[in-house]
């Protein structure tokens, strides 16, 4: 079968590999129909996360159950499913409390040995899914893949960023970073009753995308962001600020400045490093910070409901469709910010 494998920074190749087999009766084999390149894949692509050369990458996907182990109770061959990017065991102390992202045996597709056992990724013609009863989400009939696939990771993450912030209807929500996660957070804030979503970025195309979703935009390369948000909020600042940039302290510090007193900074950007932030300012102004990784297992069903009701259409972010052979080109486009979301269609 064909699969997309990582060999080093800016080096991904499509190659022939052996087909996966069930290694436990709790596994299922999925034949992906639709997958998307996620921002986290970009960190791998750049070599910021180091895998073992030859690892199959990708984790945002859905497909058809090709084969299910004997202990898989909820799914059968032929079922159409969305696959949670995060693999939880469904049994530990955290899973029993539905805190799946902190599962004692947490893992993720396509990230090599970063989380222990290396689980092959989604950009392949067949994928082994461990703990299938927990990790798979039944896809509703009549809703196309393109609307559902982002539940696998990005949409669940954007939704968590909003829910974990404690946002209330009528709140003004500022989103720092208009990549897919920022825009999906904004869309979720919108359906959950934000009175205004203010989208902040420096890339013109991304601001245009935010604007097309009905958000107010601020180009951070042109104005002082905190001052601009205060102008829009009677001098207070935003009730909720979603930080969806990651990597450095800079967007976090901006988020703290943009939030009103007693407001919440919801951090959903990708942060692996330690840095200092203005704790004194946070304490004096009683601002709160929350952190979210995104939980497709917990949020899958409610997100399906919003999509079926027509309240949410994440497919609006998919700007490019390619086949699996074109994956290296898809990574290049995403890296150069020429695309918002690149989808791999397997039957293309
Ligand atoms: Zn667990």
Layout: helices, strands, pairs:
Elements: E1 2-8, E2 11-16, E3 28-36, H1 39-45, E4 55-56, E5 60-68, E6 80-83, E7 86-87, H2 93-96, E8 107-108, E9 127-129, H3 132-135, E10 136-138, H4 145-148, H5 154-163, E11 172-176, H6 180-191, E12 196-201, H7 204-212, E13 216-219, H8 225-232, E14 238-243, H9 250-258, E15 259-267, H10 279-284, E16 288-291, H11 296-308, E17 320-322, H12 327-335, E18 342-345
Parallel strand pairs: 11-12, 11-14, 12-13, 14-15, 15-16, 17-18
Antiparallel strand pairs: 1-2, 1-4, 3-5, 3-9, 3-18, 5-6, 6-10, 7-8
Between the first and last Cα atoms, what is the distance in angstroms? 15 Å
Query: Mind telling me the CATH superfamily name of the largest domain?
Result: Medium-chain alcohol dehydrogenases, catalytic domain
Q: Label the overall shape.
A: globular
CATH topology call of the largest domain = Quinone Oxidoreductase, Chain A, domain 1
| Count of alpha and pi helical runs | 12
Class by SSE composition: alpha/beta
In words, what does this structure look like?
- The chain has about 350 residues and is an alpha/beta fold.
- The chain has two domains: about 200 residues, Quinone Oxidoreductase, Chain A, domain 1 (Alpha-Beta Complex), CATH 3.90.180; about 140 residues, Rossmann fold, CATH 3.40.50.
- Helix content is about 25%, strand content about 25%.
- It has twelve helices and 18 strands.
- The strands form four sheets. Strands 3, 5, 6, 9, 10, 17 and 18 form a seven-stranded mixed sheet that branches.
- Helix 7 links the parallel strand 12 and strand 13.
- It is globular.
- The relative contact order is 0.16.
- The mean pLDDT is about 95.
């Amino acid at each position: 079968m064909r699969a997309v494998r990582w060999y080093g920074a800016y080096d991904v190749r499509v190659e022939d590999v052996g087909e996966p087999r069930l290694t436990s009766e709790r596994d299922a084999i999925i034949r992906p129909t639709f997958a998307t390149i996620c921002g986290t894949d970009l960190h791998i692509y750049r070599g910021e996360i180091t895998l073992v050369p030859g690892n199959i990458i990708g984790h945002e996907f859905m497909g058809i159950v090709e084969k299910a182990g004997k202990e898989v109770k909820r799914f059968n061959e032929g079922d159409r499913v969305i696959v949670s990017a995060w693999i939880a065991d469904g049994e530990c102390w955290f899973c029993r409390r539905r805190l799946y992202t902190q599962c004692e045996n947490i893992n993720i597709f396509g990230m090599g040995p970063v989380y222990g056992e290396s689980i092959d990724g989604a950009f392949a013609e067949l994928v082994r899914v461990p703990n299938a009863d927990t990790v798979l989400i039944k896809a509703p009939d009549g809703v196309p893949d393109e609307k559902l696939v982002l539940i696998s990771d990005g949409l669940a993450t954007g939704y968590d960023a909003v829910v974990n912030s404690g946002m209330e209807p009528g709140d003004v929500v500022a989103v720092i970073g208009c990549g897919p996660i920022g825009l999906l957070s904004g869309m979720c804030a919108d359906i959950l009753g934000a009175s205004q979503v203010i989208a902040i970025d420096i890339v013109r195309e991304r601001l245009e995308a935010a604007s097309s979703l009905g958000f107010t935009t601020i180009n951070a390369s042109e104005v002082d962001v905190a001052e601009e948000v205060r102008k829009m909020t009677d001098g207070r600042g935003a009730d909720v600020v979603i930080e969806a940039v990651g990597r450095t302290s800079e967007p976090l510090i901006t988020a703290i400045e943009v939030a009103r007193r007693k407001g919440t900074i919801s951090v959903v950007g990708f942060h692996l490093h330690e840095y200092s932030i203005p704790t004194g300012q946070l304490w004096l102004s009683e601002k709160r910070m929350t952190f979210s990784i995104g939980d497709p297992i917990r949020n899958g069903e409610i997100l399906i409901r919003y999509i079926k009701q027509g309240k949410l259409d994440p497919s609006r972010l998919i700007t490019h469709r390619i086949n699996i052979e074109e994956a290296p080109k898809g990574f290049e486009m995403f890296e150069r910010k020429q695309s918002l979301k690149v989808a791999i269609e397997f039957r293309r």
